[in-house]
Design a protein that fits this description.
The chain has 16 helices and seven strands. It is an alpha/beta fold. A hairpin with a 2-residue loop joins strand 1 (7-14) and strand 2 (17-23). It is flat. 18% of the residues are buried. This is LOC107374155-like protein.
Length: 450
C-alpha cells in the first residue's frame, strides 16, 4: 500500500500521551517497517504491538496484523508487551476469562486477594525469563574506569584494550553472576547473547581475530560459568547440589546419569527452602493445608501456605517424580484455577492467563483464517461459531468463539473445555464443587432453585 502521498496518523502512546505521525512516503507495506518507524520516531523501547480503530465497528480497537487496514487520518494505539507484568489479582484474572458472574448474594468464584507468589522469608528467586536484551552489569570501580578510557580510545583510533588478569577476572565473574540470575544452566545461545552484549556496551573488548568479535568471550564465559556453578555447589546451592553424586542413588552415582536440569523456560526449577524452614516444618505445613482446604472462605490462608511450601513441593516433584494422582492426593489445593495460575507464575516467572490471552489476541486473526479454510465436516461444525464470531465485538466473546472453533478444528470436543450454563445456581454450584478445570460461561442471571 506504500505510495508517494503523505499520510498522517494519530498515535496513542499511553494515557494522556497522544502524538501525530507523518509518513511522507505513505503507509509502509510491511507491519515491521511501521513498527520500526514508530519505535524510532517516538524513541520507544522494548516490545510492543499495534491496534487500530475500525470505523466499520464504531471505532472499536482491533489488533493490527496488516498495514492494509490503515487509512489516512486513522488512529493506532501502541500496546507495550511486558516481560513480567505486575502481579494480577484473582478478580482480574477471573474476568479476563469471563469466569465472573453476578447474583443477588454476590457469589465469588475466586478470592479477592492478590496472588501470592512466594514467602517473604524465602531466599531470592528468579522473577523473569531471559531478557530480549541482556544487560551487562556494573563492574568494579577501577574496571569501569579502564573500560571508559578504552572505549574512548577505541572510538578515536579503533585500538583494542589490553586486559590485565584482575580486570578479566572481574568482568567474567560479574557477567557470570548476571547470567545465573536468569539461568543456572545457560545454553550456547545465551552465552552468545551475553558476549555480544558485552562488546556492544564496551567495543574496546572486541576480538579482531574473531568472526563476530566475541567468540573468545563466549568460550571464556562457558568455562567461568562452570567454575561458578562448582563454587555454588560447594556452598550448598540446592538446584546444583541435586546433581551431586551424594544426592543420587547408589545405582545412579555417575556424573552424567540422571542429571536434573530445568526444562525450557523453567525459571525456579529447584528453589531453596525459606529461611529457617526444614523438611519436617514444611511437611507440617502441608498437613495443615489438607485441613484448611475443607474450610470455606479460606483462600488467603491457603494461598499463603502454598506460597510458603513452593520449594518443598518442587523438591518433591523433581526428586520423586510423582504421578498426577499422587500429587493431587498430597496437594489438593494445587488443583484449583487460582493455584494453577499462581504455581505456573512461580515456576516459569510468566503469568499463565495473561500470556495466553495476549498471544490469543495477537494471533486470533491468523487462526480465524486457517480455521475458515478448513473444509468437510469440520467446516459444517464451526459454521455457526464463525457466524456468531462475525457478529460480536466483545473481546471475551470473541476469545471464547475462537477457542471453540480451534478445539473443533483440532478434532477435539469443545464441551471438554468450555461449559455453558443456562440453568440455576444449584446446578452451577454443584459443578464448581467438583473443581473441574474448564472455562465457565454464564449466559443469564443466576437464580436460586427453591
Amino acid at each position: 500500500m506504500a505510495g508517494s502521498t503523505p499520510v498522517r496518523l494519530k498515535v496513542i502512546l499511553g494515557e494522556n500521551n497522544i502524538e501525530k505521525l507523518t509518513l511522507p512516503n505513505g503507509i509502509p507495506e510491511s507491519l515491521e517497517d511501521l513498527l520500526s518507524t514508530i519505535k524510532t520516531t517516538f524513541g520507544l523501547k522494548g516490545n510492543f504491538r499495534l491496534q487500530y480503530m475500525d470505523q466499520d465497528f464504531g471505532n472499536d480497537l482491533f489488533n493490527l496484523n496488516s498495514t492494509t487496514e490503515l487509512r489516512n487520518l486513522g488512529t493506532i494505539k501502541v500496546i507495550h508487551q511486558q516481560t513480567h507484568p505486575p502481579l494480577i489479582s484473582a478478580d482480574q484474572s477471573t474476568s479476563s476469562l469471563s469466569l465472573s458472574f453476578e447474583s443477588d448474594d454476590s457469589i465469588s468464584v475466586a478470592s479477592n486477594g492478590t496472588i501470592i507468589l512466594s514467602s517473604p522469608e524465602s531466599m531470592s528467586s528468579r522473577t523473569q525469563q531471559w531478557p530480549e536484551d541482556f544487560a551487562i552489569p556494573q563492574f568494579s570501580y577501577d574496571t569501569e574506569l579502564q573500560l571508559e578510557r578504552g572505549n574512548t580510545e577505541y572510538r578515536v583510533s579503533q585500538k583494542m584494550l589490553t586486559l590485565s588478569a584482575r580486570m578479566l577476572s572481574d568482568i567474567l565473574k560479574r557477567v557470570a553472576e548476571e547470567i545465573y540470575c536468569y539461568k543456572a544452566y545457560p545454553e550456547d545461545v545465551h552465552f552468545c547473547a551475553a558476549a555480544e552484549a558485552l562488546i556492544k556496551k564496551h567495543p574496546c573488548l572486541k576480538e579482531p581475530g574473531s568472526s563476530n568479535g566475541c567468540y573468545g568471550w563466549k568460550q571464556r564465559l562457558k568455562y567461568k560459568m562452570a567454575n561458578y556453578r562448582t563454587q555454588l555447589k560447594l556452598q550448598g546451592c540446592p538446584e546444583l547440589c541435586v546433581n551431586s553424586l551424594k544426592s543420587k542413588a547408589t545405582t545412579d552415582a555417575v556424573p552424567a546419569k540422571k542429571v536434573k536440569k530445568p526444562k525450557r523456560c523453567e525459571a525456579n526449577f529447584y528453589p531453596s527452602f525459606p529461611t529457617g524452614e526444614t523438611l519436617d516444618s514444611m511437611e507440617k505445613v502441608r498437613l495443615e493445608l489438607l485441613t484448611e482446604i475443607g474450610i470455606r472462605d479460606n483462600e488467603m490462608i491457603i494461598a499463603d501456605k502454598m506460597a510458603n511450601t513452593f520449594a518443598y513441593r518442587r523438591h518433591e516433584v523433581v526428586n520423586q517424580e510423582p504421578s498426577i494422582q499422587e500429587l493431587n492426593n498430597r496437594w489438593p489445593a494445587l488443583f484449583t484455577q487460582k493455584e494453577i495460575n499462581t504455581e505456573f507464575q512461580r515456576l516459569m516467572a510468566v503469568p499463565l492467563e495473561w500470556k495466553f490471552m495476549a498471544q490469543l489476541d495477537m494471533h486470533s486473526s491468523q487462526l480465524i483464517k486457517v480455521i475458515r479454510a478448513k473444509g468437510g465436516a469440520t467446516r459444517q461444525k464451526i459454521a455457526n461459531i464463525m457466524d456468531t464470531l462475525d457478529q460480536t465485538v466483545d473481546i471475551n466473546h470473541r476469545r471464547e468463539h475462537v477457542l471453540k472453533a480451534l478445539i473443533i478444528f483440532l478434532g477435539e470436543d469443545a464441551d471438554g473445555l468450555i461449559k455453558e450454563y443456562l440453568v440455576s445456581f444449584n446446578s452451577l454450584s454443584a459443578h464448581l464443587v467438583k473443581g473441574t478445570q474448564k472455562k465457565l460461561t454464564v449466559r443469564t442471571n443466576i437464580t436460586r432453585e427453591p
